[in-house]
Structure formats: structure tokens, C-alpha cells
Amino acid sequence: MRRPYSKNLLRKLRNDIPIEILITDVLEMPNKISEGYFRFLCPDCSEFNTAINPKTNLARCFRCERNFNPIDMAIVVKSYSFTQAVDWLRNTFRISELPVV
């Protein structure tokens, strides 16, 4: 049986992968600047009533009221399971899990 992911690795994936870079450059999701704010096309409801918060590294859709961290975004956009999304993000952003000493 596969060992669960460490809390440290999951924290790194959620907090250290810039959500805007993931949306624009990696997932290549439709996006725009509107009224001075970065907007992206929500993968759930297909609306641009969205924003990101760089301080929390979360993306938010105000129409369907869903928050996305990088793992959630990979799950929804790529139709991945949780483990597939974690492995894909680790490989894409070259994040290794260092053993705890």
C-alpha cells in the first residue's frame, strides 16, 4: 500500500505553487484582467466572476462560491484523482519530498 503524502509536501503544493502561474502558464486556462483584477474562467461554472488572492494562494469563483488551491485546480481542470493531481504537480513543478530527519 502506498504511503500517504506528508503534510509538508501537501503544504508546499498548496502554498508554494503560485496559483496565477498554474492557471495561466501551466493549465493555460482562459484568463483576463478586468477592472484591474486577474480573472480566470471557472472550470466548474464557466464564468469569469473570479479572482485570486496571492496572500492565501487561493482562486475563488464568486458565482459558484468555490475556492481552489493548486491541488483542487489540477483535480478539476485535468480530471485527476487526488493522487494523480499531487503526482502531476510534483513532477511539473519539480517539488521533491525530503525525508523528515
Structural overview:
This protein has 101 residues and is an alpha+beta fold. Helix content is 38%, strand content 19%. The protein has four helices and five strands, in the order ααβββββαα. Strands 3-4-5 form a three-stranded antiparallel beta sheet. A two-stranded antiparallel sheet has the order 1-2. Strand 1 (31-34) and strand 2 (37-40) form a beta hairpin. The chain is elongated, with a radius of gyration of 14 Å.
Entry summary:
The protein is an alpha+beta fold and 101 residues long. It has helices at residues 7-16, 19-26, 70-78, 82-92, and strands spanning 31-34, 37-40, 50-53, 58-61, 66-68. Strand 4 and strand 5 form a beta hairpin.
Which key features would you list for this structure?
single chain; about 100 residues; alpha+beta; three-stranded antiparallel β-sheet; 4 helices
Please report the distance between the alpha carbons of the first and last residues. Answer: 23 Å
Q: What fraction strand? A: 15-25%
Biggest β-sheet: strands ordered side by side in the sheet? 3-4-5
Mean pLDDT: 93
Could you tell me the number of beta strands? 5
- Runs in which pLDDT lies below 50 for 5 or more consecutive residues are none
Count of discrete alpha- or pi-helical segments spanning 4 or more residues = 4
Shape: elongated
Order of helices and strands: HHEEEEEHH
Largest sheet: 3 strands, antiparallel
What is the alpha-carbon Rg in Å?
Answer: 14 Å
Counting helices, strands and paired strands, the structural category is: alpha+beta
